[in-house]
Design goal:
mainly alpha
């Protein structure tokens, strides 16, 4: 459709629309996970957009495969948390057809129901059983069709298990290192044009926080309710780490080392964007809500915006590198 209506430029427009849809759906997902916290939703959604560990999201090949897998995944999460579970399993099946690691993250989605303790164990076991059934049936069909990757996994199962263990350890560590190191990388490599992008990014991010009413007054919040919020946030941080680990549990399509941080091979981190964005949103929420005075909360939002603007500039630097690489080739 894109090629017929506008050629390659239209392909990029379609790609942009997919990325924009994913960002909007993820924002809605965060609002459903933690209602009433715009700081969590906005900062998490911004990290989802700017996630620096995966530098391939605007490339067409990845937009129409891995990013579409994320579209179906986020839609499945929204349906699951809205108790429309049949639809959720249909949509997550579509993501399995596109990119398996995204499907694996859905195993941990019931954990997002932090305060829903009624029959949680039974619901989680049922969910796990359904997910395993989908996965096993799909693998059997693919084996019968003679898919080489499935046969290779079965013929070298010890190596497959080793890759899984290595992934769930090295993958999250690479993500954390990348997030911590990105501002220093930008500071070391940026030029005058990057400074302009960074300043523009800072203004846009601060305006976004302001327009979404993140300056919530905390004077009327009791000590008890603050403790409950803190407990929920700590639980969500742990869940976020689990989701990141689940992103590396099926190395069928992840032929690249999980320690990679740059270039096309960084697509190995595509599925980890969900857990990483949840984690970032929760940390930002805790950070801002640890202050009571609005002026200090505004300063805290400025600190978050500066960090995100560094990541924004990093994305610009990476895309310029892609453009220079194309010219050289």
């Amino acid at each position: 459709l894109a090629m017929k209506t506008g050629g390659v430029p239209m392909l990029y427009i379609f790609s942009f629309l997919i990325l924009s849809l994913n960002a909007f759906l993820f924002y809605k997902l965060l609002k459903k996970i933690k209602p009433g916290s715009e700081i969590f939703a906005v900062s998490g959604a911004l990290m989802f957009i700017l996630f620096p560990a995966n530098t391939t999201k605007i490339l067409l090949t990845y937009s129409f495969t891995m990013q579409l897998a994320l579209t179906f995944f986020i839609a499945a999460c929204l349906f699951y948390l809205s108790e429309r579970k049949v639809l959720s399993y249909i949509f997550i099946l579509f993501s399995l057809f596109l990119y398996e690691p995204v499907f694996m993250v859905f195993f941990g989605i019931p954990l997002l129901k932090i305060r829903n303790t009624e029959n949680r164990g039974r619901a989680f076991l049922k969910h796990t059983g359904i997910m395993l059934s989908i996965l096993i049936i799909t693998f059997i069909v693919r084996k019968m069709m003679g898919e080489a990757r499935i046969s290779g996994m079965l013929n070298n199962f010890p190596g497959f298990a080793k890759d899984i263990f290595s992934g769930i350890v090295s993958g999250p560590l690479t993500i954390f290192k990348n997030l911590a190191r990105t501002p220093f990388t930008v500071f070391r490599e940026m030029n005058s044009a990057d400074i302009v992008f960074m300043a523009a990014g800072f203004v846009l991010i601060m305006v976004t926080f302001y327009l979404t009413n993140t300056k919530t007054k905390t004077e009327n919040i009791s000590y008890t309710s603050r403790n409950i919020t803190l407990t929920d946030s700590v639980k969500m941080i742990l869940v976020s780490v689990i989701l990141i680990m689940l992103s590396y549990t099926i190395p069928l399509m992840q032929n690249y080392p999980v320690t990679i941080e740059y270039g096309r091979m960084s697509s190995v981190h595509t599925a980890a964007v969900t857990g990483s964005s949840l984690l970032f949103g929760m940390i930002c929420d805790l950070f801002v809500n640890s202050f009571r005075k609005n002026i200090i909360r505004t300063f805290a939002l400025a600190v978050i915006s500066i960090n995100l603007s560094f990541i924004f500039a990093y994305n610009v630097i990476i895309q310029n590198d892609f453009a220079r690489s194309r010219e050289i080739q």
